[in-house]
Amino acid sequence: MERPSLEINLPETHEEGKLYVVDSLNNLNKLNVCPDESQHSLDEEESTRGTGENMAGSNTRNQRLFFVTFILTLIISLALVSFVIFLIIQTRNKMDQISSRLLSEKKNIEELKKINNILLKHLNQSGIKD
To answer: InterPro entries in the record, alphabetically (predicted)?
Structure first.
């Protein structure tokens, strides 16, 4: 019994189209050559449909996991940003305190210089020299 040739000249299509046609021809060839395995291949297709439902459930779980991870990342980021803002404010307050101390010390130094100049003038007027 002679079987017809399944070789077909494929027009130039996209790669996906070519793969689909080749896959379809392979499946047709398997059905013609191995009729005993045809029931087995149908059973495999039905089992892959069942796993498709499992994949949908897995996809939903993956989406939930991604969403929970995303929310946790946002919360942690918000906490870190709040902490950094708190540190910036604290640093600014400390810098303000230090600059006010420096200004008061500068005033004290200026006053000490004036007192020193007054003492030197008084000592020079009194005639006491080193």
So the answer is: DUF4577
